[in-house]
Amino acid sequence: MPKKRRNGGRSKKNRGHTQGVPCTHCGRIVPKDKAIKRYTVRNMVDASSLRDIKDNRAFENFSIPKLYTKLQYCISCGIHLRVVRVRNHEVRRSQYLREKKSQRLSLKLVKFNAFSSSFLDYFFMF
Ligand SMILES: [Zn+2]
């Protein structure tokens, strides 16, 4: 049967099961390897409040702490909130082919380097 994605939209390599995580937006339990993960660093206060605080602070080199959050979305919310977009077949395919090509190229380079070093060693023996 033809598949839309080779990995089924997941990165579960040789595992049978991965833990479920709740979606940040809707609370749906989504497999951890399938969830769309974004790590965001935001200011605790908005820009105008930040200016007010900076004007009235008692210590000169005091910086307001930041908000570090890891967002995990289910696929439906990821699409709805436009974190990720729908890509057509060619685009999905081309990325996969590009990865494959780069792997092959690196393998060739390794082989070439091994060959050239041994060749040079042979050359400099005489
Ligand atoms: Zn969701």
From TrEMBL:
<dbReference type="GO" id="GO:0003729">
    <property type="term" value="F:mRNA binding"/>
</dbReference>
<dbReference type="GO" id="GO:0006412">
    <property type="term" value="P:translation"/>
</dbReference>
<dbReference type="Pfam" id="PF01283">
    <property type="entry name" value="Ribosomal_S26e"/>
</dbReference>
<protein>
    <recommendedName>
        <fullName>40S ribosomal protein S26</fullName>
    </recommendedName>
</protein>
<feature type="compositionally biased region" description="Basic residues">
    <location>
        <begin position="1"/>
        <end position="16"/>
    </location>
</feature>
<dbReference type="InterPro" id="IPR000892">
    <property type="entry name" value="Ribosomal_eS26"/>
</dbReference>
<keyword id="KW-0687">Ribonucleoprotein</keyword>
<feature type="region of interest" description="Disordered">
    <location>
        <begin position="1"/>
        <end position="23"/>
    </location>
</feature>
<dbReference type="InterPro" id="IPR038551">
    <property type="entry name" value="Ribosomal_eS26_sf"/>
</dbReference>
<comment type="similarity">
    <text>Belongs to the eukaryotic ribosomal protein eS26 family.</text>
</comment>
<dbReference type="GO" id="GO:0003735">
    <property type="term" value="F:structural constituent of ribosome"/>
</dbReference>
<keyword id="KW-0689">Ribosomal protein</keyword>
<dbReference type="GO" id="GO:0022627">
    <property type="term" value="C:cytosolic small ribosomal subunit"/>
</dbReference>
